[in-house]
Amino acid sequence: APKESRALLGFLHDHVxxxxxxxRHRWVPGDLVFWDNRCNLxxxxxxxxxxxxxxxxxxxxxxxx
Length: 65
Hints:
The chain has 65 residues and is an all-alpha fold. It has one helix at 2-16.
């Protein structure tokens, strides 16, 4: 049912973008930040101070659990 799908997706979107669920990190030289893409909605913004370059590396970790 498309109408119900739109309503549910709208509710979920409005829920996850609440300020209580948003982390804004202000990068400084030497920072190292980890997040779990399975449990997070990642939205990178190109607002790095001074337009400097930030390097990202993707790592996958396999656990025993």
